[in-house]
Design goal:
258 residues, alpha+beta, flat
């Protein structure tokens, strides 16, 4: 019945559109209607048929098949949550219980594997933080859901002024480190970098997509030769005694100073 009503609705919609385009088709079968009347009659008929169709829709059936779709897309936890909402009085309840067990089991396995993977990814990022030139990154965090890696430098003491005050070190670090992290780790999509120095805090949060948009090239292309395609342009490329304008523009766009 549902299929019949749906097909009838589609057929009437097609007839209405055709009649609006060529009213002469209706005249041939003895119906002398103006375009406004055709539109009104067609719209009302389709509206009524859609209401009738809605009465045949089983919300529990919709949940069940939506859950199966989520399961096929490997969205196990969402599928399990959807199946839990199916009414116990529904004809599909028994089937939904079995499917829920499968979805929940897969979700638990997936989440466990994700935790292990996140742990390994975090270890890699922490190891990366330790080999930074200044060796002053004290906090590394990773948000696996959004692929965000967070690096926070220690509060820089006056004893390190010689390092950060020379050769635009802060600019170079804030521009190069996020791009370098994303180049080295495919699971990172966004980098947050915080560097407190003296009375200021330098902060940036930048994504692969933002770097691609700004440099007008794909990240895959940047990775092919990182030195040539990024570092030489936005980090070190300048003549002695002159400011690297491209690096300064990049820094001014993506770095906030508090």
């Amino acid at each position: 019945m549902k299929i019949f009503v749906l097909l009838l609705t589609i057929l009437l919609a097609i007839i209405t559109v055709m009649a609006l385009i060529k009213p002469v088709l209706l005249k041939r079968i003895g119906l002398n209607l103006t375009r406004p009347k055709i539109f009104l009659i067609g719209s009302l008929t389709i509206f009524i048929l859609l209401i009738i169709l809605g009465r045949f829709v089983n919300p529990e059936e919709v949940k069940y098949y939506n859950a199966k779709t989520l399961l096929a897309e490997k969205k196990y936890r969402q599928a399990a949550d959807m199946l839990k909402k199916i009414d116990t009085k529904s004809d599909l309840y028994k089937e939904s219980v079995n499917l829920y067990k499968e979805a929940d089991s897969l979700a638990l396995l997936y989440e466990e594997n994700l935790k292990k993977e996140d742990s390994e990814n975090l270890k890699l990022l922490k190891a990366y933080g330790k080999i930074d030139a200044s060796k002053e990154i004290e906090k590394v965090a990773f948000d696996s859901l959004n692929g965000v890696a967070q690096f926070t430098y220690k509060l820089q003491t006056p004893s390190l002024s010689w390092y950060w005050d020379t050769n635009d070190k802060i600019e170079k670090a804030m521009v190069s480190i996020p791009a370098r992290v994303m180049k080295d780790f495919d699971f990172v999509n966004v980098v947050e970098l915080t560097l407190p120095f003296e009375s200021k805090t330098y902060y940036t949060k930048i994504s692969r997509q933002e770097i691609e948009a700004y440099t007008r090239t794909s990240f895959e292309n940047i990775k092919k030769d990182f030195s040539v395609n990024f570092v030489d342009i936005y980090v070190y490329n300048k003549k002695i005694g002159e400011t690297n304008k491209k690096r300064k523009d990049y820094f001014d766009k993506f770095v906030k100073i508090k």
